[in-house]
Each structure stands twice: as structure tokens, then as C-alpha cells.
Predict the structure.
Amino acid sequence: MKQSIGAKPLSFPTPAWVVGTYDMNGKPNAMTVAWGGICCSNPPCISVSLRKATYSYAGIMENKAFTVNIPSEAYVKETDYFGIASGKEEDKFEATCLTPVRSELVPAPYVAEFPVVLECKLLHSLEIGLHTLFVGEIMDIKAEEAVLDEKGNPDIEKVRPVVYGTGNRSYYGIGCNLGKAFSIGKKP
């Protein structure tokens, strides 16, 4: 028998994505998001939800673009750090020793070391409450050759993406716990 646990922001699986933006001065910034998913197949679109208080929110509004970077398990600490630190106060790329790359298609950076990146043009923004839902049209997906299958698509077992467990606030890989969220990334 099921037990009611109340209305909560909980779903499985929940991604651990890193959204790339430029700030108002053109400085690359990135933040970890868990509220997101594919929202349309034609045109191909993805959605992410950010709080207005985040530094990345202003970057998306200013540039009308963002990237969605899919980290592999090897970058779980950096992924957590991107969600703990504020780009307003520090350079997250410098702190993590990761490389920002300027997209050729949209005014937003992506993380060179992450195996898959989606370059998105902002189509819609919708204030829902505490979060604003951003819908981005996927202009291109870039993937490392090493993670592609025989048909040229990213293979989840090769990408080894990070997912977020909302109930226990931990990160997981494909079948294993990678560490405690908001803890493992305190030191990049």
C-alpha cells in the first residue's frame, strides 16, 4: 500500500546538468541544475528551471541563450561545486580547472571536459513561482567521439551521466552512489 508523502519537487531520475551562460560582462559562468528535461521533439527543445536569485538567471535573460552540459561521473565533484559556489563571487571555471569554450552557435559557453553539450537558443521563459522555466531550442549537440554509439548517438553507458537523488540529496551514476550533494564539492 502506498503512503502519502506530500507535495514535493521529487521525480526519478533527475538530471545533474551544468548550465553555461555569460554574465553581463561576457565572463563565462556555469551552475548545476536538477530541474530540467526534454520538453519538445519538433523543434527539439529542453527546459531548465532556475531561481531568479541565481547569477545564471540574469545571464540567460541578457543573452537569450544557454548551454546544457552533461557531466560524466568523473566530474561529480566539479558538478557539485558549480551548484554550491556563485559566479557573482568567483570564477567557477578557474576554481575547478575546467575549460569554458565559446559556442559558435549561441552566446553561451560550454564545458570542454564534459562529454555532451546542448547549445540552446532561448525560446520561452515562464515564471512559475520560486523558479522560472526556460525553454531552449536545441541548435546543436556536441559529443565526444568516444561516447558515441555505432549510429552516432551518445551512449549512456559511455557518457556515464550524473543524476541527482532529490530525496536524499546525493549524486548517482548508472547504478551507484557517487557522493553526498552539497558536500563532496566543497573543495573543487
User: Anything to note?
Assistant: The chain has one domain: 14-180. Residues 55 and 88 are 6 Å apart (CA to CA).
